[in-house]
Structure formats: structure tokens, C-alpha cells
Amino acid sequence: MQYLGEICALLTACCWSGSALAFSAAALRVGSVRLNVTRLIVAAVLLLAVVAVAGIDIHLTASQLQNLVISGIVGLVIGDTFLFKAYEIVGARTGMLIMSAAPAVSALLAYLLLGEILGSIGFVGMAVTLLGIALVVLERRETSTRHRETYIRGIVYAFIAAAGQGVALVIAKMAFNEGPVNGFVASLIRIGSAVIIIFPIARLAGEYNDAIVIYLKDRRALWLTFLGAFLGPFLGITLSLVSVAYTSVGVAATLMATVPILMLPLVRFVLKENVSWRALAGAMIAVAGVAVLFLR
């Protein structure tokens, strides 16, 4: 199917837009660490059920398995952990802006390691899309009372998160380049690897010992976490892996980075917040960039 990779990347961004709203509401109730661990566990269970019920072939070569495991650890353990920390320090908008560097990291690494070349039109589309995203993300400035050193640390955390996402996509692409891999199987391996690493760490740190009790007391937080886990780690990550399998990593990462654009209707009609003309202009610029990427 033509443009399958690009379409899956945009569907990924749609899923992540919905999961962002669910997770932001759940995080206020249970905390970011409990939320992060629980969302991965829920997604792993859902993926395992799909693979088992559908009887999907899970045969992979040793190198494919290795690449997917490393991709999961780099993207979901290292990348997402630093991203949540960055959000706490510098705020979501600044963190999202810096995360817009992920496509550039992906494109550079894909060129160096995989020989993928976007071409001049592809780079123009990427630049225009990222410009539109930047206008939306910076539409309102968040004030910070943190010390300068703490703020700089938050910026560094956000760049580490962006690098982690970019590197993780390229490593996952290596597994797909070696041979066909089912998207649900690839997601299960990545998320399962992340759970094996992050769950015992959270338990040893005392950050997850009371998670069951807290979720049983707050059923709304539980359903918000399940909804976010379904849209994000379960469906979104699966679609993102299908995307990188069928299009270049740089294009896939750029289209996935349109989450701030796709969240504008949700912010306006679900949260009832006003959307400025600057944000709308950024959205239109980003859409133009996406069109260029499709027509490159």
C-alpha cells in the first residue's frame, strides 16, 4: 500500500495525542513514576494477549531480537524517563519543543547507519513541519521559578529524551531491515524489555510499592491509565514500528512529532481552551510540511 508508512506515522501521532490527555490527567492523581510503570505493564499484557490469541508468528533472528530489546530500553526506559523528568522541570511546552529535535537525530543516524537519504525536498518538508510545531509549542510561554542550574538540567534531560527516541527508532529499523517482523511482536519485545528493566528499579526505589492500593482507591485514575496505555504504548508504538518499516526513519519521526498540532482540536473542544491565531498558523504550516513529505 502506497504511503502506508506515512499514514501509520500520522495515526501514531493521533494515538499519542489522545494518550497525552489521558496520561496528563492520570499523572496528577497517581504520580509520573507509577503511571509510567503501569502503562508499560498494561500495554505488555494487551500485546501478549493479541499475539497469543491471533497466533502471530514470533520467530525472530538473534540480531532482530537484540535490536528490538535495545530499542525498547533506549526509547522507553532511558528516553521516556528523561522526558518525564524534563516535563517536571521545564514544562510540557518547552519539553515538546526540544523533542522536536528527535526527527533530526533520526534522519542523521539513519543516513550514517542505514544509508537512508531524504533528498532536498524531504529535508524541506521536515524543516517546514518542525517550524509549524515550534510555533504551536511556543504559543504560550511557561513561567518557571526554578533555579537556573535546575532549568538547564531540565533542558539537558529533554535533549537526552529526544536523542533516545531518535536512536530507538533507528535501532528498531535495523530489525525490520533484516527481515519482516510483525508490528505487535516488535512492540511486545520492546515494551516487555522496558518492563523487565524499569519495574524492579521502581520497586527498589520505593516508587511502586503502593501502586495497586492507590489504583484501587482511585478508579478514575485506573481507567485513564488503561485508556492512555491502549492508545499510547499498545496501539501507538505498534503503529510507529509499522511506520518505520515502510518509510524512512526521518519522515516517520517528523510525522509522529505532529502531536502538538493534532492536540489543538482536543484542547479547543475537549478542554474548552482558546486556541490563538499563532497556534492555528503553526498548524497550517505543519500541515503544509506534512504534504511536502507525502509528495516528495
Please give a structural write-up.
The chain is mainly α. It has helices at 4-30, 32-54, 62-90, 92-99, 102-114, 119-137, 148-178, 183-204, 211-217, 219-246, 249-256, 259-269, 277-295. It has one domain (4-295). It contains 13 helices and no strands. Helix 1 crosses helix 11 (249-256), helix 6 (119-137) runs parallel beside helix 11 and helix 6 packs antiparallel against helix 13. The mean pLDDT is 87.
Task: Assign a percent range to the helix content.
Answer: over 70%
Overall structural class, as computed from helix and strand content, comes to mainly alpha
Main sheet specs: none
Number of domains: 1
The radius of gyration computed from the alpha-carbon positions, rounded to a whole number of angstroms, is: 18 Å
> Into which percentage range does the β-strand content fall?
under 5%
What overall geometry do the principal axes of the alpha carbons give? globular
Order of helices and strands: HHHHHHHHHHHHH
Task: Give the key terms.
mainly alpha
Give the SSE layout:
Layout: H1 4-30, H2 32-54, H3 62-90, H4 92-99, H5 102-114, H6 119-137, H7 148-178, H8 183-204, H9 211-217, H10 219-246, H11 249-256, H12 259-269, H13 277-295
Helix pairs in contact: 1-2, 1-10, 1-11, 1-12, 2-8, 2-10, 3-4, 3-7, 3-8, 4-7, 5-7, 5-11, 6-11, 6-13, 8-10, 10-11
